[in-house]
Amino acid sequence: MALAVNIAACSSSASSSSETSVLSTLDTTIEQSAATSVMLETVSTETTVVATATPTPTATPVPTLLPEDRTVTVTFTGDCTLTQDYRASNKAFDKKVNGDMSYCFKNCADMFKSDDMTLINLENPVTTTTSHKNNQYIFRMNPDDLEMLTSNGIEAVNIANNHTMDFWEEGLKETRKNLDERKITWSDDKNGAIFTTAKGIKIGMVGLGNDTNASAVYGIIDQLRKDGAQIIIASCHFGQEGVYEATSRQKKIAHELIDYGVDIVVGTHPHRLQPIEKYKDHYIFYSLSNFCFGGNYSLNDPDSVIIQCDFIMDADGSKCVDYRLRVYPYSQTSTRPGNDFCPKPYKWESEEYFRVMSRLGWAQGDE
């Protein structure tokens, strides 16, 4: 696997050039009742008895996380379509996978399993319904094939994308149900979600489709905070297909989400890599391109990437005070030409490796 590139943020400031990201958090103040004094009087010829003041309650100690538990690692990839076009006579994806649920992610499953959470964009309904749209491409994943996620360390998916309604509303309802049954956390532009890590940190997620404005999910973000989310991730399926630069609308939406308190924005949809931006000490991945895309039998551009973000929490785990990125340049296929639907890492400092870094606007000097 390619050697990671580590990017560390530095100390906090209000300017966009500052290096440490101090993120908005929940109010974790411990409520403590005030001490009270109670006077008891008796009707007696004896000396009046005066009760002593109630002792001041001892403050509940704030739990302190061990240094190793303050780092929450989340892994991100781009678009995953784990099937082929529903109407295709050549079932190339199914034939290649041949029922092996570990096949597609065998070169990265160890990374996915060793983090705290892995999040992908799942660009296909998961349903058995047959009534569908007549778009150029439509996708339908067999519910049993969700084992490709559960057995490879993929815990969360965004389903706000342009294929989520390929099989109409019934297909979307079934998709949500099938994900719930397999305990895969999902979010879209109507529903936020919270994933609780083994360390007890709550990661909130919201998804946006290409037609969703940032303001449309502000209420979801508010609710995630009320429900205790200490980190909030926005998955945005936006932009123009086939281009290597973010559109003005992508930038507007991403900036508005960060301004509203989202910690990181993860983009997909263009099927190409686009530069990473650091905005007000928060990272925006405008497009991570495709990762494992069963709808493409040949690839004009195989470049992809896995990005891991370390969210560094404060001592009591109530807020993120810093975060670091590790960048892994990948190919969407292990063989060329064609597509074998098995992503693999590019060799360290190979031509392909540097091409990915260039398209992301990243360099070893950022380490």
What does the model show?
With 367 residues, this protein is of the alpha/beta class. The protein is built from 7 helices and 15 strands. Strands 1, 2, 3, 4, 5, 12, 13, 14 and 15 form a 9-stranded mixed beta sheet that branches. Strand 8, helix 6 and strand 9 form a beta-alpha-beta unit. The radius of gyration is 24 Å and the shape is globular. The chain starts with a strand and ends in a 7-residue tail after the last helix. The N terminus is likely disordered.
What's this model, at a glance?
Residues 1-56 have low confidence and may be disordered. The strands form two sheets. Strands 1, 2, 3, 4, 5, 12, 13, 14 and 15 form a nine-stranded mixed sheet that branches. A six-stranded mixed sheet has the order 6-7-8-9-11-10.
Task: Note the topology.
Blueprint (H helix, E strand, L loop, with lengths): L4 E4 L62 E11 L10 H6 L11 H6 L2 E6 L24 H4 L5 E3 L9 H14 L3 E3 L5 E4 L5 E7 L9 H9 L4 E7 L10 H12 L4 E5 L4 E7 L2 E7 L1 E4 L9 E11 L6 E12 L12 E2 L5 H10 L7
Parallel strand pairs: 2-3, 2-12, 3-4, 4-5, 7-8, 8-9, 9-11
Antiparallel strand pairs: 1-14, 2-13, 6-7, 10-11, 13-14, 14-15
